[in-house]
Amino acid sequence: MRRPLPVFVALAAVLLLAGCSATGGLRAEQAARSAASGGGGSGVGTPRWTFAMVTHAGSGDSFWDTVRKGAQQAAAKDNINFVYSNDANTANQVQLVQAAIDQKVDGLLVTLAKGDAMKAVLAKAEAAGIPVVSVNSGEEFAARFGALTHVGQDESTAGRATGAELKQRGRKSVLCVIHEQGNVGQEQRCNGAKAAFGGAWQVLYVNGTDLPDAKAAISAKLQADRSIDTVLTLSAPLAATALQGITEAGRAAGSTEEDTFDLSTQVVGGLKAGTIGFAVDQQPYLQGYEGVDLLWLYRYNLNVLGGGSPVATGPQILTGKDAPTLAAYVARGTR
Q1: Is residue 270 within 8 Å of residue 244, measured between CB atoms?
Q2: Subcellular localization, per the record (predicted)?
Q3: At 259, is the secondary structure helix, strand, or coil?
Q4: I want to staple 11 with a disulfide (CB 3.0 to 4.6 A). Which of 44, 75, 99, 229 is the partner?
């Protein structure tokens, strides 16, 4: 575990140096390039507030890169100094949030994948008068921990939509691969899908940070149980891993369907080629973008959206017919 002081110093340095990014369309790309070189320019005349985003995952992950890009582009539009940090270790994530509080940021965006661990530090944010919006994970914790609202998809709802799609596609036996044990949202996806599907269902826990090991586990399971005709993964990186596992298990092409949550260049390519049946998109760009916008609206006009319910960004079921249109957006990092 990292010691609190280095985490604080690292975030403090980022807070001093961070800039902003972009807006939408062509202007978004131009502003992003300008921000990267130290320029900028916003679309509003409000004060230069600082918002910090602290997530439980991020570096080198296409999903979190998309969340971050949405947040950066909204920040540029809203004249926000945007600071991003992440750590998969929950204790370190708590330290990063504490560091942001100590720096007296004007707003906080957080993920609550393992929400109970964040309760105490978010109480400190509330006591300090720092508005909080939770994004992506931990909807069930948001209101209890003082967040203004939660931006993301209801994971149980997304799971049920997935199960209904699997049933409609005539699948008979599904292996649901959970890649982060203890992540409430992943459990909710699997459980919701199982309930709506109604067919044979198994869960396999793998280590999502060790893809070769995950591939071996999936392959071994498919070799041991020939009745499984579908593998459901809960992230885009695991989708590619599962496809490799299906091949290594000696399954004939087309005999075992791979379906997944989330998009990536590889997933869109799989949809187009037919190696992936469908993807469940929660629109991560919107989670970052709307999270920043909602904090700005609260600071500027005391607005709160949702009325006590989350601001839903998904689920959206995408298939091969959607792939040609999606490809350009995924390539630019906004889907």
Answers
A1: no
A2: Cell envelope
A3: strand
A4: 99
